[in-house]
Each structure stands twice: as C-alpha cells, then as structure tokens.
Specification:
single chain, CBS-domain, 2 domains, four-stranded mixed β-sheet, three-stranded mixed β-sheet, 7 strands, 59% helix
C-alpha cells in the first residue's frame, strides 16, 4: 500500500506488515505496536538520510515485516564503500536510539514505562539486521566485501542463499514454539518475506545491466537510431572507473588500449555491463577481452 510521495521518494507499506500490526494491536498491544512501527520507520529514514548525504537518489522505501527496502536510481555494485555506509546507517541509528533512551532514563527525563520495549525494539532490530545475509543490512555489507573478490552477481547469489537459510531457521523456530504450546505467527511471516526478498535480490542482480540496455533498445526501436559514444580506456583501468565516464542516452563502444596506445580490442556496452556484474568494479578492463576468464 502506498502511503504517499514526499521529497521525490515514494513511501510504501507492505500489506502483510499491516496485517501483523493489526494482529498485535488487536491483542491489546497498541502502544507497543506504535513503538515498533516508529523504530522501524526511523531505521529506514536513517538509510534515506545516508543515501542523500552520499548523493544517491532514493526512488522508493517499502516497509516490510522484518524491516524495509530502499530502491535507488544508481547502479548498485559500483561504489561499494558508499553502499556499505548506507547499509550500516540503519542499525547504527537503532543502537544510537537505544543508547539515547537509556541516557534519558538515567538522567530522569524518561520514565520506566515503555522504555524496556523501546530498548528491546531498537536493539533487536539493529542486531537482526546485522546478520550477514540478504536482504538484511549485514548482508549488503557482506556482499560489498565479497563483490571485490567474486563479482556482484556471484556475491549476491551467495549472500542470498544465506537469507534463505535464515528463513528456514525461523520456520524451525516457529515449529519448535508450537511444540511447546506457544503459538506465534511472527516467525513464519518473517521467514516467508525473508525468503521472497532474498530470491528477489538474487534475480535482480542478473537484470541490473539489462535494464539500461533495454531502455536503449526501446529508443532504437522508436527512433531507429541513437548516438554512439566511443570511449578510449586503458586496459589497466578498473570497470568501476570506466562506469563513471559512461554518458546517459548513448550506446557505448569501449576502445581498450595499452600504455603504448595500441588498440587491444573493442568492447560493447553489453559486454561491459556483463563484466561489471560478473567480475565486480575492481576488475581491470583487459579482463573483458579475455575469453574464458569470467567465472
């Protein structure tokens, strides 16, 4: 369900998240539900602020039962340091709020009341999101580290498998609670959405380079022609550096040269993005010319 659009960002709430909130509210836990929603919202806003501070444009924020997801316009997997910072902003916000709540209590500005729940909500959300599996924040940090070694696509697939494994553990935990007479729907809902989100992350990694190419294919179909941008690059330059020089709205041909300025080969934009996804932004451009060098 779409809440609205503010500052160019679309805010959505997943229907099942609302169902989960209604179940808890119907159980007489309205205040606790409100605190949980507020903690989750500030978690996502921290991601948004970090992304804006790094000049990343956020298109959409969707609140899910286990947290939320940000959809940004920039090509993922190209600035791994920035992506790590954005991912860590959410959990760090939760730990900061937990510490702030404890401090306000110690100096007498916050009564005991719902403080324990506020602390538990922040600490549990922060710690849960640091688990190194997709689509959690810890998984995005781990993927950024792994991308430098195996490429964005393989890193995404590996960390997404971890997300599915955690989903299975949540199901087993829910079954275990049933065995002891404790009926909890939350583990099963979390497992369901964690599995779906992990699979979505895995699938989207393969479509990232295709998206831009399909847009250009559409332009060619409509107009019959489009500008081609010839870019000369050294074979020792990384793919991440080359990406910074690509021009929107044009199809690229990369002329790869050595330090002697002799041409080593020509790489199409399609081949470039396939290499960026498979090999990662730290791979050298000459790798695109080596048949059989890709994993």
């Amino acid at each position: 369900m779409q809440l609205g659009r503010f500052g160019g960002v679309t805010f959505k709430v997943n229907t099942w998240f609302l169902v989960l909130l209604l179940i808890h509210a119907g159980s007489g836990l309205l205040k606790q539900t409100g605190i949980f929603f507020g903690v989750l919202l500030t978690h996502e806003l921290a991601h948004l602020i970090a992304a804006a501070a790094c000049d990343y444009h956020v298109d959409e924020i969707e609140i899910l039962p286990f947290g939320g997801t940000l959809r940004i316009s920039e090509q993922p997997g190209t600035n791994l340091g920035v992506e790590t910072l954005i991912a860590l902003a959410g959990p760090l916000n939760n730990f900061f709020l937990a510490g702030l709540g404890a401090l306000l209590y110690r100096i007498g500005l916050w009564e005991q009341g719902l403080l324990d729940l506020f602390l538990m909500a922040n600490l549990s959300m922060g710690l849960f999101n640091l688990i190194p599996v997709l689509p959690l924040d810890g998984g995005r940090v781990y993927r950024a580290w792994l991308t430098r070694r195996v490429g964005y696509r393989r890193a995404t697939a590996r960390v997404a498998r971890g997300g599915k494994a955690v989903a299975l553990l949540l199901v087993l935990a829910g079954v275990g609670l049933l065995f002891f007479g404790v009926y909890q729907l939350t583990p099963f809902l979390l497992a369901f959405f964690l599995y779906l989100a992990a699979e979505k992350e895995k699938l989207s990694a393969g479509f990232i380079p295709i998206k831009g190419l399909m847009e250009k294919q559409g332009i060619l179909k409509n107009d019959g022609a489009m500008g081609t941008y010839h870019l000369t690059v050294l074979e020792t330059v990384t793919l991440g550096e080359v990406l910074k020089h690509l021009v929107p709205g044009k199809y690229h041909l990369l002329i790869v040269v050595g330090e002697d300025l002799e041409i080593r080969g020509v790489v199409t934009e399609k081949r470039f993005f396939e290499g960026l996804t498979r090999l990662g932004p730290d791979a050298r451009t000459r790798k695109l010319l080596e048949d059989g060098s890709w994993p």
